[in-house]
Specification:
With 1055 residues, the chain is of the alpha/beta class. Strand 21 and strand 22 form a beta hairpin. The radius of gyration is 55 Å and the shape is flat.
Amino acid sequence: MPPMEKVCRLALVCVLMLAFPARGVWASPDDSAKTNVLVLHSYYSSFVWTEGLDAGIHEVLNDVKHLEIYTEYMDSKRFESPQLFSDLFRLYQNKYRRTNFSVIIACDDKALRFLLNYRQELFPGAPVVFCGVNNFPSGLLEGQRGVTGKLERLNLSKTLDVALTLHPQTRRVVFIVDTTTTGQGTAQVAREAIQGRPGRVAFEFLDDLPMPEILRRVAALPDDSLVVLLNFNRDRDGKVFSHLESIALLREVCRAPIYGAWDFHLGRGIVGGAIVTGREEGAAAARMALEVLGGVEVAQIPVVDQPTQSLVFDYQQLVRFGIDPARLPAGSRLLNAPQDFYALNKRLIWSMVAILVFLALVTLVLAGAVLQRQRAQRALRKVNRALLSLSSCNRAMLEARAEPELLREICRIVVEEGGYDQAWVGFPDPARPGRSRVVAHWDRQGDQSGANAPQPEGALGPGGTLSRCQAEAGHLCLPLRVQNAAFGVLGIKARGAADFARDEVELLEKLADNLSYGIMTLNLAEERNQAQEALQQSNARLSLILESLPIIPFTCAMGSPERMTYVGGAIERITGYPAESFIRQPGFWLERIHAEDRDQVLAQLGNFEELFRQPLTYRFRKADGSYAWFEDIRRAAESLDQHAPLVFGALHDVTRRETLRQEAQSRLDRLVQAEKMTSLGEIVAGVAHEINNPNAFISYNLPLLQENWRVMRPLLASAGPEAASGLPQGLSLEELNDEMDEIITAIRDGSLRINAVVSQLRDYVRYEPSSPQTRLDVNQVVQRSLAFLGAQIRKSFGVFNLDLSPDPPPVWGNSTKLMQVITNLVVNAIHATQDRDSGRLVISTRALAQGQAVSLQVRDHGRGMTPEVQERIFEPFFTTRRDAGGTGLGLAVSLRLVEELGGVLYCASRAGQGACFSLILPAASVGGLDFPPAVLWVAGPSQRSERAAAILRASPNRKQLVTAADPSSVEALLAEWPNLGAVVLDGQGLGAELATWCQRLRLALPLLRVGWYDPRGGSGANPVPGPSGPDFRLGPPLETALEHEVFRRAARSLL
């Protein structure tokens, strides 16, 4: 920048600083932190005194950064009541319970006293700065820490001195003040001011009077009177007046001069006096608050207790009462006084003078700068052509693909865009050592031969020492260097030897350096392209080899073993998913691992020692919904970029191997089970033989014992007391009679019990696949069973309903085995019923069209079963009636018989609600029965059921999903789907009706598990207690929720 221009800018800055001085700004130590300040006013917001205080506070605090100011108005002037403080306490307690204040500014007496009473409860530890306080007893702050401020001290003595001096004929002074707390404090100051004054002047207080009475008395004052207006905001009748209303009423009726103490009366009717201004009081308190925020301890800031010394008078009132302003005390300020033009515009005038001086200085500076600029412009044009050439050549180097093309383009740009006459590039000439041959050339005539290109001085080639040279004809030769060795030259010709400026040459040298770098970059790029082409060919051969192998290579980071960073293309051929899905989508691989294998995989991924020692084996869901078995082998290795180590792995499709293994295991399990049952049968046969022999002796001799006792009983009774002498001591004949009956009955029941246990053991281990099977009518088998059980049913149940479907399709089976199953189920219902009056038994049959099967249901309303009991009821020897003689073999035998008949046995039960056993047998026209666990999904208008069905189709387990749009059809669907284990209500589709339908279904179908799906997430059992809440709640991911929460629980009872 030229020196004159620098001087010009500096002068401009100085003048602007003088004309517009900056305002000081206080900043907290931490400008990024928010500081909260509470301003608590005693009165309402439009109260003129309050407006002045608030203006002064904000005038100081508004420039502080990161300061949040909260303002509250207690409005105690208009609503003064004993409950005011307590009501405000509750309000502020709720409003600011989460807000901490760094300082609190209390304005006027009410605000200070409120804070002294409630500060520790509302704002514990917050410092307080007060202002505008009149009534300040000496012991007010005893025991109060962190409180300081400025007292509102009226200088009424000075006001009286000035007023009596300006009105020497005065004989009577009337003070107008109200009886509020502030008013009485002000009245006390007035009484102190009139003490000791000569008796020629009488002083009177008009305080506890209605406003009309005060106006009447003021209007009747004689001419030798003065009026001093203090606080008057509430008269004796309780009527509230603002300061402006009070002075307006008095000004209308008062003929005597009125003096005051506050600025809000100035200009509205008072002559003047020692004036207290709300703005100054508020500003003083705000400055003290800034000291507290700046870190000064409150104890180090004393309470300011100084009366005001500012004398202010209204010029118009002085003229009204004929007072010469020259009589006013020295230092007095006049309000509304006429001012001359200079006084009104003093700052503007001096600002204009400074600007004119500045403009003159700038004119002189610019005049000298114009000459210097003209010289600079000529040099600038030369620099611009070099800069334009440099910019365009750089762009050309970025776009170039070959060296000859680049060199020609550089020469063309220098001539046509840079405006030079000629440009050329030369490389060492092998035929002429130390000389160059032109490889690219351009001039204004478009000549590209290079015949007129000059030769530079110096050597070119390895170890060349060419430096910049400037020929007499205006040629500039710039070396092209690599590691300080010149391998070429860039020549540029202009008009005359003096046409190259110093800055221009520097830019052209930069152009030559960039061209050198561009040439080397193109040579390196060519070498890199050749290397990349060779590498691509090698990769293609390697990929072809990997694709032909039955494995899928992949890599992942050591810290994220579940996210693949590379995966072989064969993954799409095996799984149907593109390789990009595994790499770009986090969790893609883990989400498609079968839910039953996922926890084990995650556990092994977290144990690197186990992970690298033993391969993972899991099921993976393919794109078509089927599952493939993968063997996942991983090894750790250092990464090529020397950063975090990588994990190299290979996926091997072992589906066929796992399928063969499972089939072999299944055959082995069946062989083991058959061997176990054979061994158990031999043991049972031996045990039955050993038990039957003594039990047969007992059974044979028990009638003889009964007959002998029947004969002996009357003989003993006729023998009299002599017969009792041979009995044990303390045993009478009557007791002997009773005990013998009980003994005989116990022996008979025990013998029958032994026979029953032996019979059930034989039934359990007996397997007779060749037992004769015929076409059976299920209704007829039920009727034959009831012929044997009718008496027991009538004895045990108050209500018995038989609901047989007309003409059910025949089934293949053995009537004796089917009758045994029905008998066992009915006997279980009898044992579960405790009270005949409330007992109810329902036996029903139904033809199932969709499965071509017959359903037989036995339902009781007894005590029901807990989920824990229900999971074990088909285990051999498990019973809840061990003390009542239960063996735990009845349902186990029934299950064996049902499986032998090719059917399934399903139980639905709830504690206290009874149980329902459903026997489903295939029709004789069907080769087999396909009735896996099923769930009813009630979707409403939602399409969620379609997604649930898609998830089930992709699952390897045997499941069914039944859908319905209306919850009212659930009961009808149960008749067609007795294998339903649960109902899921879709909360997204049913909306607000979800809880209502859940309650209805729980009450109407107490044995059925009812849950709902909440798309917002969260799965679990019994989220809502009580009989009307759901048994479970499902949430995303839907696949996991359906798999674990619904189907597994439903399948526990469908066997």
